[in-house]
Amino acid sequence: MIDHPALDLVDAVASQLADPHTAPLGPREHRQHLAYGPPGIALLHIERAANGLGPWQRAHDWLAAASRQPFTSGPDSHPFYGAPAFAHALACAADHLPGSYQRALNTMDRQIEVDVGCRLDAAHRRIDAGRLPQLAEFDTIRGLIGYGAYLLRRNPGSPTTRAVLDYCVRLTEPITHHGETLPGWWTETGPSGSPDNRFPGGHANTGMAHGIGGVLALLALAARNDVVADGHHPALRTILAWLDRWKQETGSGPAWPYWVTRGELRTGRLAPSTPRRPSWCYGTAGLTRAQQLAALALGDTDRQINAENALVAALTDADQLKATTDNGLCHGFAGLAHLAARMADDAHPSTVGRLRAAIPALLAAVHPPGTDPDLVATALIQDEERGPGLLDGAAGIALALLAPSTAAPPRSAWDACLLIA
Q1: Res 3: pLDDT
Q2: Are the C-beta atoms of 98 and 104 separated by less than 8 Å?
Q3: Whole-angstrom Cα distance, residue 355 to residue 158?
């Protein structure tokens, strides 16, 4: 294993988050949350244990801390909250500990299949009635795409997994709403999922966290695993055509908008905007990974190379990097380093070197040379806004540093919940 200075920060974060009894856990409602609470922190210790970098006992302790009370299931749960969130962490551990956790996982898997079935029934009734979706119906964090990520990993050939993929195909079909033809994933709300006066007529979200980028990634990952629905490849091409239509040239390379508004759809032109951060959740970085995966699934080498070059351009564009203002997994430098490493693992020989060459600067932004890893870890964990969790906080930063620091892919499937692998 490569010895990289960023690994000192990973070790420091893991050490300070070793004991759930002494670590800051935040509000009570975070206990069941993959993004902010113990399930996400457990992933750090699971991945380190799977790499031989730490003891399995720490992972056990955090899983136990998350499970002290019954988990929420049914309509009040989602892929990042309640039983599905815990199931993801538990499955990551069980993959490396044969025979462990199976009874709990089997129980949660049965409940998840019931919950997904209810959500699918509601989604198809909505489509049949000609209504537009809510973001939470389909997105990666709260919706059917996030459930699909879990199901594809746990039981790829199951009828429920295929039913989610069938739904994804149907979501890409156009819908006529008040006499206007819209993409099937158009929502009447703003990006928060609530009515927003800044988005009259709603929007089409392109992001990985809440938009069509996540749908593209799930369909691509399924196809790469030979799990396909009727219309699967045409659905992939429909989403890619949409992204091609709204691609912008920045001068340093292509970029994609976070969303398309009704006004922009009608004029066919994006409104002028300042450069935006190229994060996982929104924008160019996550979308390049989704497009790379789709290109690999379709055997489209030109599109693959273009996607990989687009990420290199984003990671070396001073204006886009200036818009990146934190270190987190979701929309910060650590997340960019992890995406670059994941894309490099699958990259074409003509681009792999440039992708890997962009990583050291990203790691240095998170852990500048000469800084004390223990002090940096303390500051990250005690950050009142971001805290110790996975999506924005210290555990996610530490996890995201591992693969780019070691030049080896994750040993656990911790990042499957992000639909990037």
Answers
A1: 55
A2: no
A3: 36
- For every residue of 384-406, DSSP letters joined together read TTTTTSSSSSHHHHHHHHHHHHH
Which residue, 77, 83, 173, 66, is CA-closest to 118? 77
Provide the 3-class DSSP secondary structure of residue 328: coil
Task: Sort residue 370 into left (φ over 0), alpha (ψ -120 to 50) or beta.
Answer: left
State residue 213's pLDDT score: 98
Angstrom distance (rounded) from CA 47 to CA 43? 6
How high is the mean pLDDT of the chain?
A: 95
95 Cβ contact list (under 8 Å, min separation 6): 412, 413
Q: pLDDT tens, 111-156?
A: 999 999 999 999 999 999 999 999 999 999 999 999 999 999 999 9
Query: Collapsing DSSP states into helix, strand and coil, what is residue 113?
Result: helix
**Torsion over CA: 6, 365, 141, 80 (sign):** positive
Token readout for 367 is 């852990």
What is d(CA 373, CA 396) in angstroms, rounded to the nearest whole number?
16
- Nearest-CA neighbor of 377 among 32, 27, 44? 44
Cα 344 from chain centroid (whole Å): 17
Q: How far apart are CA 24 and CA 372, in angstroms?
A: 21
pTM check: above 0.90: yes
Structural contact between residues 384 and 317, judged by C-beta atoms closer than 8 angstroms: no
**Distance in angstroms (rounded) separating the CA atoms of residues 128 and 141:** 24
- Tell which residue, 190, 287, 177, 187, has the closest CA to residue 239: 287
Nearest residue to 79 via CA among 419, 421, 417, 420: 417
Q: Residues 282, 385, 28, 42: is their CA dihedral positive or negative?
A: positive
Strand 175-177 to strand 180-182: parallel, antiparallel, or no bridges (unpaired)? antiparallel
Amino acid at 159: P
- Nearest-Å Rg of the Cα atoms of the chain is 20
In the chain, the largest separation of any two C-alpha atoms, in whole Å, equals 61
Contacts with 65 (C-beta within 8 Å, 6 or more apart), sequence order? 20, 21, 25, 31, 38
How many other CB atoms are found less than 10 A from the CB of residue 366?
25
Task: Provide the Cα torsion 125, 130, 132, 134; round to 10°.
Answer: -10
Q: Which two tokens stand for residue 165?
A: 């993929």
Q: Grade residue 1 by pLDDT with cuts at 50, 70 and 90.
A: very low
